[in-house]
Design brief:
The protein is α+β, with helices and mostly antiparallel strands. The protein is built from eight helices and ten strands.
């Protein structure tokens, strides 16, 4: 009887540990991200209002703030998280979710700006940059143009094969219906659906599509949701633009066992 009790206790202990390991709680203060985004866009409108007419004449057609009133805009925050800074052995890591730092840092986000169903701008926040408004300061046109709210223009992203084109994920406007985020070091959209985290791949499965025709290729693209661990196991390292990130994923790809871990997702508004 004593041995049976020991066995039962061991099973309960193991079950409890497993439950704890597979219950990652992600708390996102999305309202604060959106508040930050709104204030940030206000600043961008103020900057455009204060720059010289010569600059406006040169860049006006490309600026959201020059062509639209803020009241016409709908904005969606897509946070950018990063891998944890502490030492993690990626060669033995069984779930990449455990390596992601989901700390809320409101300045780290991409803002997708719409008017109706039209994507106007896909803007990565640079909280450090401020447009000089003092006439004694030198105005850097390139930095301004790089950091203002630019109107989005559809264009083919060259060098990426159609079957792994992630950059077009905004085509489905998924951030309007789900929580979408990025991981610093890679351009892939990630989404939380049904308590699972997926990478979004936009793929064209139709045969005979002319990839040189932007309209045909774009209309053909449909989202494919790939479980995050599976995604990083299969990814070509060339698609990760951060070298340290790529190095860590290279080690993770060698891990034999992988857990597809569910998460508890909480949005605090």
């Amino acid at each position: 009887m004593k041995n049976k009790i020991i066995v039962i206790c061991a099973v309960l202990f193991f079950t409890n540990c497993t439950a704890q390991k597979t219950n990652t709680v992600i708390t996102i203060q999305l309202k604060n991200y959106q508040k930050y985004a709104s204030n940030y866009i206000d600043e961008k409108y103020d900057e455009v209002a204060k720059i010289s007419d010569s600059v406006l004449k040169k860049y006006g057609k490309s600026l959201v703030a020059y062509n639209y009133k803020k009241a016409q805009l709908a904005m969606y925050s897509c946070p950018i998280f990063s891998l944890k800074k502490e030492n993690i052995d990626y060669a033995t890591l069984t779930n990449i979710i455990d390596a992601i730092d989901f700390t809320n840092q409101y300045e780290n986000q991409v803002i997708n700006i719409y008017t109706g169903d039209i994507l106007l701008s896909n803007h990565t926040v640079n909280s450090v940059y401020k447009t000089p408004i003092n006439l004694n300061e030198q105005f850097d046109e390139f930095s301004f143009f790089e950091n203002t709210l630019l109107l989005h223009t559809n264009q083919v992203i060259t060098g990426l094969p159609a079957e792994v084109t992630d950059i077009y994920a905004y085509k489905e406007q998924l951030e309007k219906k789900h929580f979408v985020f990025f991981i610093e070091g890679i351009d892939t959209y990630f989404i939380i659906k049904n308590n699972m985290i997926y990478a979004i791949k936009m793929i064209c499965k139709e045969k005979g599509i002319d990839q040189k025709s932007y309209e045909q290729f774009f209309n053909c693209l449909q989202p494919e949701f790939v479980e995050i661990n599976t995604y990083f196991k299969e990814i070509e390292l060339a698609f990760i633009h951060d070298k340290q990130f790529a190095k860590k994923i290279a080690a993770f790809k060698k891990t034999k066992h992988t857990e597809n871990q569910k998460v508890t997702f909480k949005v605090e508004e």
